[in-house]
Protein backbone atom coordinates (compact mmCIF):
# COMPACT_ATOMS: atom_id res chain seq x y z
CA UNK A 1 0.00 0.00 0.00
CA UNK A 2 1.47 3.35 -0.96
CA UNK A 3 -0.14 6.67 -0.24
CA UNK A 4 1.48 9.88 -1.28
CA UNK A 5 1.04 12.38 1.51
CA UNK A 6 0.85 15.37 -0.82
CA UNK A 7 -2.13 13.85 -2.64
CA UNK A 8 -3.99 13.64 0.60
CA UNK A 9 -2.95 17.15 1.58
CA UNK A 10 -4.18 18.48 -1.76
CA UNK A 11 -7.43 16.64 -1.32
CA UNK A 12 -7.98 17.85 2.20
CA UNK A 13 -7.15 21.44 1.31
CA UNK A 14 -9.94 21.36 -1.23
CA UNK A 15 -13.55 22.36 -0.84
CA UNK A 16 -14.48 19.24 1.07
CA UNK A 17 -12.06 19.72 3.93
CA UNK A 18 -14.55 21.05 6.43
CA UNK A 19 -17.01 18.23 6.08
CA UNK A 20 -15.04 15.14 5.13
CA UNK A 21 -11.58 15.63 6.67
CA UNK A 22 -10.90 12.82 9.18
CA UNK A 23 -14.23 11.09 8.65
CA UNK A 24 -13.00 7.73 7.33
CA UNK A 25 -14.28 4.56 8.94
CA UNK A 26 -12.64 4.07 12.39
CA UNK A 27 -10.93 7.48 12.26
CA UNK A 28 -10.37 8.68 15.85
CA UNK A 29 -12.00 12.04 16.51
CA UNK A 30 -10.26 13.32 19.64
CA UNK A 31 -7.08 11.28 19.51
CA UNK A 32 -3.99 12.05 17.46
CA UNK A 33 -3.53 10.16 14.20
CA UNK A 34 -1.30 11.01 11.21
CA UNK A 35 -3.20 11.99 8.07
CA UNK A 36 -1.88 8.95 6.24
CA UNK A 37 0.44 5.99 6.61
CA UNK A 38 2.17 4.22 9.46
CA UNK A 39 2.88 5.64 12.92
CA UNK A 40 4.28 4.09 16.10
CA UNK A 41 5.93 5.56 19.22
CA UNK A 42 5.54 9.17 20.36
CA UNK A 43 8.97 10.87 20.21
CA UNK A 44 10.58 14.20 21.07
CA UNK A 45 7.72 15.42 23.23
CA UNK A 46 8.64 18.89 24.45
CA UNK A 47 6.93 22.17 25.33
CA UNK A 48 8.61 25.32 24.00
CA UNK A 49 7.36 28.88 23.49
CA UNK A 50 3.69 28.08 23.81
CA UNK A 51 3.72 24.91 21.69
CA UNK A 52 3.62 21.25 22.61
CA UNK A 53 5.62 19.26 20.09
CA UNK A 54 4.76 15.70 19.26
CA UNK A 55 7.12 13.83 16.97
CA UNK A 56 6.41 10.22 16.16
CA UNK A 57 7.87 7.13 14.52
CA UNK A 58 6.61 7.46 10.98
CA UNK A 59 6.82 5.66 7.67
CA UNK A 60 5.59 8.21 5.13
CA UNK A 61 5.32 5.74 2.24
CA UNK A 62 3.43 2.81 3.68
CA UNK A 63 0.74 1.58 6.02
CA UNK A 64 3.28 -0.81 7.51
CA UNK A 65 6.37 -0.24 9.65
CA UNK A 66 9.47 0.49 7.56
CA UNK A 67 12.36 2.99 7.36
CA UNK A 68 11.64 5.30 10.26
CA UNK A 69 11.30 9.07 10.07
CA UNK A 70 10.10 11.46 12.77
CA UNK A 71 6.65 12.79 11.83
CA UNK A 72 5.76 16.08 13.52
CA UNK A 73 2.72 17.88 14.93
CA UNK A 74 2.22 20.80 17.31
CA UNK A 75 -0.53 21.86 19.66
CA UNK A 76 -1.32 24.64 22.10
CA UNK A 77 -3.52 22.46 24.31
CA UNK A 78 -2.50 18.80 23.58
CA UNK A 79 -6.07 18.27 22.31
CA UNK A 80 -6.08 20.03 18.91
CA UNK A 81 -3.08 19.18 16.72
CA UNK A 82 -1.65 20.74 13.61
CA UNK A 83 0.37 18.55 11.27
CA UNK A 84 3.80 19.86 10.24
CA UNK A 85 6.25 18.50 7.65
CA UNK A 86 8.46 15.57 8.64
CA UNK A 87 10.97 16.58 11.31
CA UNK A 88 13.80 14.11 10.81
CA UNK A 89 14.56 11.99 7.75
CA UNK A 90 16.92 9.02 7.42
CA UNK A 91 20.50 9.88 6.36
CA UNK A 92 23.83 8.13 5.77
CA UNK A 93 23.95 7.07 9.44
CA UNK A 94 20.62 5.29 9.16
CA UNK A 95 16.93 5.60 9.89
CA UNK A 96 15.59 7.58 12.84
CA UNK A 97 14.34 5.45 15.74
CA UNK A 98 12.70 6.69 18.92
CA UNK A 99 14.07 9.39 21.17
CA UNK A 100 13.33 12.59 23.03
CA UNK A 101 13.77 16.36 22.82
CA UNK A 102 14.76 19.02 25.35
CA UNK A 103 15.09 22.77 25.51
CA UNK A 104 18.76 23.72 25.92
CA UNK A 105 17.86 26.85 27.90
CA UNK A 106 21.41 27.94 28.71
CA UNK A 107 23.05 26.88 25.45
CA UNK A 108 25.11 24.22 27.24
CA UNK A 109 25.69 22.68 23.81
CA UNK A 110 27.02 25.88 22.27
CA UNK A 111 24.74 25.22 19.28
CA UNK A 112 22.52 28.29 19.85
CA UNK A 113 24.86 31.31 20.02
CA UNK A 114 24.00 31.94 23.66
CA UNK A 115 20.24 31.68 23.15
CA UNK A 116 17.95 28.74 23.84
CA UNK A 117 16.83 26.11 21.35
CA UNK A 118 15.52 22.61 20.87
CA UNK A 119 17.74 19.54 20.80
CA UNK A 120 16.46 16.14 19.70
CA UNK A 121 18.25 12.99 20.85
CA UNK A 122 17.44 9.84 18.88
CA UNK A 123 18.73 6.46 17.74
CA UNK A 124 20.33 6.17 14.33
CA UNK A 125 19.80 2.62 13.05
CA UNK A 126 21.73 1.16 10.13
CA UNK A 127 21.99 -2.54 9.33
CA UNK A 128 20.91 -3.31 12.89
CA UNK A 129 23.66 -1.11 14.34
CA UNK A 130 22.04 1.29 16.82
CA UNK A 131 23.82 4.47 17.93
CA UNK A 132 22.67 7.69 19.58
CA UNK A 133 22.69 10.97 17.69
CA UNK A 134 21.41 14.50 18.09
CA UNK A 135 19.86 17.23 15.93
CA UNK A 136 19.10 20.85 16.79
CA UNK A 137 16.64 23.47 15.68
CA UNK A 138 16.95 27.26 15.60
CA UNK A 139 13.34 27.81 14.55
CA UNK A 140 11.10 26.22 17.17
CA UNK A 141 11.34 22.73 15.69
CA UNK A 142 10.36 23.67 12.12
CA UNK A 143 13.70 22.62 10.64
CA UNK A 144 16.48 20.50 12.10
CA UNK A 145 20.22 20.30 11.61
CA UNK A 146 21.87 16.98 12.35
CA UNK A 147 24.96 17.47 14.51
CA UNK A 148 28.17 17.05 12.52
CA UNK A 149 29.74 14.91 15.26
CA UNK A 150 27.04 12.22 15.18
CA UNK A 151 26.78 9.63 16.56
CA UNK A 152 27.32 11.06 20.05
CA UNK A 153 27.21 7.58 21.64
CA UNK A 154 28.83 4.71 19.79
CA UNK A 155 27.57 1.17 20.06
CA UNK A 156 30.00 -1.10 21.87
CA UNK A 157 28.39 -4.34 20.78
CA UNK A 158 24.87 -4.26 22.19
CA UNK A 159 22.18 -5.44 19.77
CA UNK A 160 19.21 -3.49 21.18
CA UNK A 161 20.61 -0.11 22.22
CA UNK A 162 18.07 2.61 21.70
CA UNK A 163 15.37 5.13 22.61
CA UNK A 164 17.30 7.82 24.53
CA UNK A 165 15.24 9.94 26.93
CA UNK A 166 17.15 12.99 28.14
CA UNK A 167 16.42 15.47 30.94
CA UNK A 168 18.25 18.13 32.92
CA UNK A 169 19.21 16.91 36.42
CA UNK A 170 19.23 20.03 38.56
CA UNK A 171 21.12 18.61 41.58
CA UNK A 172 24.16 17.47 39.63
CA UNK A 173 23.94 20.23 37.03
CA UNK A 174 24.07 17.70 34.22
CA UNK A 175 22.02 16.18 31.46
CA UNK A 176 21.01 12.59 32.11
CA UNK A 177 20.12 10.05 29.44
CA UNK A 178 18.25 6.83 30.12
CA UNK A 179 18.62 4.32 27.31
CA UNK A 180 17.15 0.87 26.68
CA UNK A 181 19.83 -1.78 26.27
CA UNK A 182 18.66 -5.35 25.80
CA UNK A 183 16.68 -6.14 28.93
CA UNK A 184 18.03 -3.36 31.12
CA UNK A 185 18.44 0.42 30.99
CA UNK A 186 21.73 2.34 30.95
CA UNK A 187 22.29 5.84 32.34
CA UNK A 188 24.61 8.35 30.74
CA UNK A 189 25.52 11.85 31.88
CA UNK A 190 26.68 14.98 30.04
CA UNK A 191 27.37 18.68 30.59
CA UNK A 192 26.71 19.70 26.99
CA UNK A 193 24.50 17.08 25.23
CA UNK A 194 27.43 16.33 22.91
CA UNK A 195 29.82 14.24 25.04
CA UNK A 196 28.28 11.48 27.11
CA UNK A 197 29.69 9.37 29.89
CA UNK A 198 28.24 6.00 30.93
CA UNK A 199 27.40 6.09 34.65
CA UNK A 200 25.36 3.02 35.58
CA UNK A 201 22.72 0.52 34.60
CA UNK A 202 19.58 -0.91 36.11
CA UNK A 203 17.11 -3.68 35.70
CA UNK A 204 18.73 -6.93 34.60
CA UNK A 205 17.09 -8.65 37.56
CA UNK A 206 14.19 -6.28 38.24
CA UNK A 207 10.63 -6.25 36.96
CA UNK A 208 9.15 -7.98 33.92
CA UNK A 209 11.37 -9.48 31.22
CA UNK A 210 9.00 -11.07 28.73
CA UNK A 211 10.61 -9.15 25.88
CA UNK A 212 13.24 -6.59 24.97
CA UNK A 213 13.12 -3.33 26.98
CA UNK A 214 12.26 -0.20 24.99
CA UNK A 215 11.40 3.49 25.33
CA UNK A 216 12.32 4.29 28.96
CA UNK A 217 11.40 7.53 30.73
CA UNK A 218 12.61 8.87 34.08
CA UNK A 219 11.30 11.75 36.21
CA UNK A 220 10.68 12.78 39.79
CA UNK A 221 7.19 13.34 41.24
CA UNK A 222 5.90 14.48 44.63
CA UNK A 223 3.94 11.87 46.61
CA UNK A 224 0.39 13.07 47.33
CA UNK A 225 1.43 16.50 46.06
CA UNK A 226 3.92 16.95 48.90
CA UNK A 227 7.08 18.67 47.55
CA UNK A 228 9.05 17.41 50.54
CA UNK A 229 8.36 13.79 49.75
CA UNK A 230 9.38 12.85 46.23
CA UNK A 231 10.09 9.66 44.35
CA UNK A 232 11.62 8.88 40.97
CA UNK A 233 9.50 7.06 38.42
CA UNK A 234 11.33 4.90 35.88
CA UNK A 235 9.00 3.85 33.09
CA UNK A 236 10.10 0.97 30.84
CA UNK A 237 8.26 -0.81 28.07
CA UNK A 238 8.67 -4.42 27.13
CA UNK A 239 8.20 -5.71 23.61
CA UNK A 240 6.37 -8.87 24.67
CA UNK A 241 5.03 -10.68 27.72
CA UNK A 242 3.12 -7.75 29.14
CA UNK A 243 0.19 -8.15 31.54
CA UNK A 244 -2.48 -8.12 28.81
CA UNK A 245 -0.33 -10.02 26.29
CA UNK A 246 2.14 -8.65 23.76
CA UNK A 247 3.80 -5.28 24.26
CA UNK A 248 3.10 -3.08 27.28
CA UNK A 249 4.63 -0.91 29.99
CA UNK A 250 5.85 -1.23 33.56
CA UNK A 251 7.27 1.26 36.04
CA UNK A 252 9.65 1.29 38.98
CA UNK A 253 9.63 3.68 41.93
CA UNK A 254 12.81 4.62 43.71
CA UNK A 255 15.63 7.09 44.18
CA UNK A 256 17.97 8.55 41.58
CA UNK A 257 21.01 10.72 42.37
CA UNK A 258 21.94 11.62 38.82
CA UNK A 259 23.88 8.38 38.42
CA UNK A 260 22.19 5.41 40.05
CA UNK A 261 18.59 4.28 40.27
CA UNK A 262 17.65 2.28 43.38
CA UNK A 263 14.39 0.35 43.30
CA UNK A 264 12.13 0.86 46.35
CA UNK A 265 10.48 -2.47 45.69
CA UNK A 266 11.64 -6.06 45.67
CA UNK A 267 13.17 -6.94 42.27
CA UNK A 268 10.42 -9.49 41.64
CA UNK A 269 7.62 -6.98 42.06
CA UNK A 270 6.03 -5.79 38.82
CA UNK A 271 4.08 -2.55 38.60
CA UNK A 272 2.07 -2.40 35.39
CA UNK A 273 1.27 0.92 33.77
CA UNK A 274 -1.91 -0.09 32.05
CA UNK A 275 -3.84 -3.36 32.03
CA UNK A 276 -5.20 -3.02 28.50
CA UNK A 277 -3.57 -4.25 25.32
CA UNK A 278 -2.95 -0.93 23.63
CA UNK A 279 -0.74 1.39 25.64
CA UNK A 280 2.90 1.29 24.59
CA UNK A 281 6.08 3.34 24.32
CA UNK A 282 4.82 5.92 26.82
CA UNK A 283 6.74 9.20 26.88
CA UNK A 284 6.27 12.34 28.94
CA UNK A 285 6.62 15.95 27.82
CA UNK A 286 9.85 17.69 28.67
CA UNK A 287 9.97 21.31 29.85
CA UNK A 288 6.35 21.85 30.87
CA UNK A 289 6.67 25.14 32.81
CA UNK A 290 6.91 24.97 36.60
CA UNK A 291 3.80 27.16 36.99
CA UNK A 292 1.88 24.35 35.32
CA UNK A 293 3.82 21.66 37.15
CA UNK A 294 2.12 18.66 35.60
CA UNK A 295 3.83 15.54 34.30
CA UNK A 296 1.91 14.55 31.18
CA UNK A 297 2.47 11.56 28.98
CA UNK A 298 1.07 9.88 25.91
CA UNK A 299 1.49 6.39 24.54
CA UNK A 300 1.19 4.66 21.22
CA UNK A 301 -2.28 3.09 21.31
CA UNK A 302 -1.44 -0.25 19.74
CA UNK A 303 0.34 -3.55 20.32
CA UNK A 304 3.20 -5.04 18.30
CA UNK A 305 1.17 -8.28 18.12
CA UNK A 306 -1.16 -6.76 15.52
CA UNK A 307 -0.20 -3.11 14.94
CA UNK A 308 0.64 -3.75 11.28
CA UNK A 309 -2.74 -5.37 10.63
CA UNK A 310 -5.40 -3.16 12.20
CA UNK A 311 -8.14 -2.40 9.66
CA UNK A 312 -7.67 1.35 9.25
CA UNK A 313 -7.05 3.30 6.07
CA UNK A 314 -5.34 5.56 4.98
CA UNK A 315 -3.50 5.81 8.34
CA UNK A 316 -2.42 3.28 10.88
CA UNK A 317 -2.26 3.88 14.67
CA UNK A 318 -3.34 6.55 17.12
CA UNK A 319 -1.84 8.05 20.27
CA UNK A 320 -3.57 7.71 23.62
CA UNK A 321 -5.31 10.77 25.00
CA UNK A 322 -2.68 12.71 27.03
CA UNK A 323 -2.65 11.75 30.72
CA UNK A 324 -1.51 13.54 33.82
CA UNK A 325 0.48 11.23 36.09
CA UNK A 326 0.82 11.55 39.84
CA UNK A 327 1.99 9.48 42.80
CA UNK A 328 -0.55 8.66 45.44
CA UNK A 329 -0.52 6.70 48.70
CA UNK A 330 -3.15 3.97 48.50
CA UNK A 331 -5.29 2.73 51.37
CA UNK A 332 -2.80 -0.11 52.00
CA UNK A 333 0.00 2.44 52.46
CA UNK A 334 1.69 1.64 49.13
CA UNK A 335 2.61 4.48 46.79
CA UNK A 336 1.29 3.97 43.26
CA UNK A 337 1.26 5.86 40.01
CA UNK A 338 -2.18 7.19 39.09
CA UNK A 339 -3.22 8.52 35.68
CA UNK A 340 -6.05 10.71 34.51
CA UNK A 341 -6.97 12.39 31.22
CA UNK A 342 -5.64 15.95 31.12
CA UNK A 343 -8.16 18.58 32.22
CA UNK A 344 -8.10 20.15 28.74
CA UNK A 345 -10.59 17.44 27.77
CA UNK A 346 -13.25 19.65 29.35
CA UNK A 347 -12.94 22.02 26.37
CA UNK A 348 -14.38 19.42 24.00
CA UNK A 349 -17.28 18.39 26.21
CA UNK A 350 -20.67 19.36 24.82
CA UNK A 351 -24.00 18.10 26.06
CA UNK A 352 -24.17 16.28 29.34
CA UNK A 353 -26.47 13.48 30.46
CA UNK A 354 -26.71 13.38 34.25
CA UNK A 355 -27.91 10.75 36.68
CA UNK A 356 -27.83 11.22 40.45
CA UNK A 357 -28.92 8.83 43.20
CA UNK A 358 -30.87 6.42 41.07
CA UNK A 359 -31.12 2.71 41.56
CA UNK A 360 -29.90 0.60 38.66
CA UNK A 361 -31.41 -2.85 38.27
CA UNK A 362 -31.54 -5.69 35.77
CA UNK A 363 -33.33 -4.98 32.47
CA UNK A 364 -33.61 -1.28 33.26
CA UNK A 365 -30.93 0.60 31.33
CA UNK A 366 -30.64 4.09 32.83
CA UNK A 367 -28.85 5.23 29.67
CA UNK A 368 -31.42 3.83 27.24
CA UNK A 369 -31.92 7.24 25.64
CA UNK A 370 -28.26 7.78 24.77
CA UNK A 371 -26.89 7.13 21.28
CA UNK A 372 -23.26 8.22 20.94
CA UNK A 373 -19.85 7.26 19.54
CA UNK A 374 -17.70 10.00 21.14
CA UNK A 375 -18.11 10.45 24.86
CA UNK A 376 -16.71 10.47 28.33
CA UNK A 377 -18.34 8.83 31.34
CA UNK A 378 -17.64 9.82 34.94
CA UNK A 379 -19.49 7.54 37.31
CA UNK A 380 -19.58 6.75 41.00
CA UNK A 381 -21.48 3.57 41.68
CA UNK A 382 -22.28 1.95 44.99
CA UNK A 383 -22.79 -1.78 45.09
CA UNK A 384 -26.05 -2.85 46.74
CA UNK A 385 -27.03 -6.42 45.91
CA UNK A 386 -25.87 -6.87 42.30
CA UNK A 387 -23.51 -9.69 41.31
CA UNK A 388 -22.15 -7.78 38.31
CA UNK A 389 -22.51 -4.28 36.90
CA UNK A 390 -20.90 -1.86 34.52
CA UNK A 391 -21.20 -0.46 31.03
CA UNK A 392 -21.75 -1.86 27.57
CA UNK A 393 -20.31 0.61 25.08
CA UNK A 394 -20.51 1.08 21.31
CA UNK A 395 -23.32 -1.45 21.33
CA UNK A 396 -25.43 -2.43 18.34
CA UNK A 397 -28.26 -4.88 18.73
CA UNK A 398 -27.24 -8.17 20.26
CA UNK A 399 -24.10 -8.52 18.15
CA UNK A 400 -21.59 -5.91 19.22
CA UNK A 401 -20.53 -4.34 22.49
CA UNK A 402 -17.42 -3.54 24.49
CA UNK A 403 -17.94 -4.42 28.11
CA UNK A 404 -16.46 -2.61 31.10
CA UNK A 405 -17.79 -4.53 34.08
CA UNK A 406 -17.25 -5.36 37.72
CA UNK A 407 -17.61 -8.95 38.94
CA UNK A 408 -18.59 -8.74 42.60
CA UNK A 409 -17.77 -12.29 43.63
CA UNK A 410 -14.36 -12.34 41.97
CA UNK A 411 -13.66 -8.69 42.92
CA UNK A 412 -12.29 -7.96 39.47
CA UNK A 413 -12.71 -5.25 36.89
CA UNK A 414 -13.04 -6.61 33.37
CA UNK A 415 -12.75 -5.00 29.96
CA UNK A 416 -13.94 -7.41 27.31
CA UNK A 417 -13.62 -6.69 23.60
CA UNK A 418 -14.52 -10.17 22.38
CA UNK A 419 -17.62 -8.79 20.68
CA UNK A 420 -16.35 -5.25 20.11
CA UNK A 421 -16.47 -5.46 16.31
CA UNK A 422 -13.93 -6.32 13.63
CA UNK A 423 -11.23 -8.62 15.05
CA UNK A 424 -10.38 -11.23 12.43
CA UNK A 425 -7.29 -9.35 11.18
CA UNK A 426 -5.35 -10.97 14.06
CA UNK A 427 -5.74 -13.95 16.36
CA UNK A 428 -4.21 -11.83 19.15
CA UNK A 429 -6.89 -9.14 19.18
CA UNK A 430 -9.81 -10.80 20.94
CA UNK A 431 -9.96 -11.30 24.67
CA UNK A 432 -10.48 -9.56 27.95
CA UNK A 433 -8.36 -7.77 30.54
CA UNK A 434 -9.05 -8.75 34.14
CA UNK A 435 -7.69 -6.78 37.11
CA UNK A 436 -8.07 -7.39 40.86
CA UNK A 437 -9.85 -4.44 42.39
CA UNK A 438 -11.46 -5.01 45.80
CA UNK A 439 -13.99 -2.27 46.51
CA UNK A 440 -13.79 0.01 49.53
CA UNK A 441 -17.24 0.48 51.12
CA UNK A 442 -18.76 -1.05 47.99
CA UNK A 443 -17.82 2.00 45.87
CA UNK A 444 -16.48 1.96 42.33
CA UNK A 445 -15.45 5.07 40.41
CA UNK A 446 -15.07 4.80 36.67
CA UNK A 447 -13.94 7.31 34.11
CA UNK A 448 -14.13 6.13 30.50
CA UNK A 449 -13.14 7.81 27.23
CA UNK A 450 -14.80 6.39 24.14
CA UNK A 451 -13.70 7.36 20.63
CA UNK A 452 -14.45 5.88 17.21
CA UNK A 453 -11.95 3.07 17.70
CA UNK A 454 -10.74 3.08 21.31
CA UNK A 455 -11.86 2.77 24.92
CA UNK A 456 -9.69 4.11 27.77
CA UNK A 457 -10.84 3.14 31.26
CA UNK A 458 -9.64 4.73 34.53
CA UNK A 459 -10.83 3.10 37.74
CA UNK A 460 -10.83 4.67 41.20
CA UNK A 461 -9.23 8.00 40.31
CA UNK A 462 -6.78 6.44 37.87
CA UNK A 463 -5.40 3.79 40.22
CA UNK A 464 -5.96 1.31 37.40
CA UNK A 465 -5.95 2.18 33.69
CA UNK A 466 -6.99 -0.06 30.80
CA UNK A 467 -6.55 1.05 27.20
CA UNK A 468 -7.90 -0.88 24.25
CA UNK A 469 -8.58 -0.45 20.57
CA UNK A 470 -11.98 -1.51 19.21
CA UNK A 471 -13.36 -1.59 15.67
CA UNK A 472 -17.14 -1.47 15.98
CA UNK A 473 -19.70 -0.68 13.28
CA UNK A 474 -20.57 2.98 13.13
CA UNK A 475 -24.14 1.99 13.99
CA UNK A 476 -22.86 0.78 17.36
CA UNK A 477 -24.01 3.78 19.35
CA UNK A 478 -26.03 2.37 22.23
CA UNK A 479 -24.75 2.77 25.76
CA UNK A 480 -25.96 0.50 28.52
CA UNK A 481 -25.54 0.73 32.25
CA UNK A 482 -26.06 -2.95 32.96
CA UNK A 483 -26.75 -4.65 36.27
CA UNK A 484 -27.03 -8.38 36.96
CA UNK A 485 -28.48 -10.25 39.91
CA UNK A 486 -29.61 -7.32 42.06
CA UNK A 487 -29.20 -3.57 42.34
CA UNK A 488 -26.63 -0.79 42.45
CA UNK A 489 -26.96 2.82 43.52
CA UNK A 490 -25.76 5.21 40.85
CA UNK A 491 -24.58 7.97 43.16
CA UNK A 492 -23.58 10.14 40.24
CA UNK A 493 -23.03 9.67 36.55
CA UNK A 494 -22.10 12.32 34.03
CA UNK A 495 -21.94 11.33 30.39
CA UNK A 496 -20.41 14.08 28.29
CA UNK A 497 -20.72 14.02 24.54
CA UNK A 498 -17.38 15.06 23.05
CA UNK A 499 -16.58 17.12 19.93
CA UNK A 500 -14.20 16.14 17.20
CA UNK A 501 -10.91 18.00 17.39
CA UNK A 502 -10.17 17.67 13.68
CA UNK A 503 -12.81 19.69 11.83
C1 LIG B 1 9.15 0.61 20.17
C2 LIG B 1 10.26 0.58 19.14
C3 LIG B 1 11.49 1.31 19.65
C4 LIG B 1 12.18 1.71 18.39
C5 LIG B 1 11.02 2.02 17.47
C6 LIG B 1 11.26 1.71 16.04
O1 LIG B 1 7.88 0.47 19.66
O2 LIG B 1 10.56 -0.77 18.82
O3 LIG B 1 12.29 0.55 20.51
O4 LIG B 1 13.02 2.81 18.56
O5 LIG B 1 9.92 1.26 17.95
O6 LIG B 1 10.22 2.18 15.24
Automatic annotation (TrEMBL):
Q: Which UniProt keywords apply?
A: Carbohydrate metabolism, Glycosidase, Hydrolase
Checking PANTHER family in the record gives: EXOINULINASE INUD (AFU_ORTHOLOGUE AFUA_5G00480)
Entry-linked Pfam families: Glyco_hydro_32C, Glyco_hydro_32N
Q: Which domain of life is it from?
A: Bacteria
Asked whether the keyword Signal is assigned, the reply is no
Biological processes annotated in GO = sucrose catabolic process
- Positions of the Glycosyl hydrolase family 32 N-terminal domain: 31-341
Q: What are the Glycosyl hydrolase family 32 C-terminal domain coordinates in residue numbering? A: 344-496
One of the record's GO cellular component terms = cytoplasm
Provide the family line.
Belongs to the glycosyl hydrolase 32 family.
- GO molecular function terms attached to this record: sucrose alpha-glucosidase activity
List the protein's name: Glycoside hydrolase family 32 protein
Q: What is the native source organism of this protein?
A: Anaerobacillus alkaliphilus
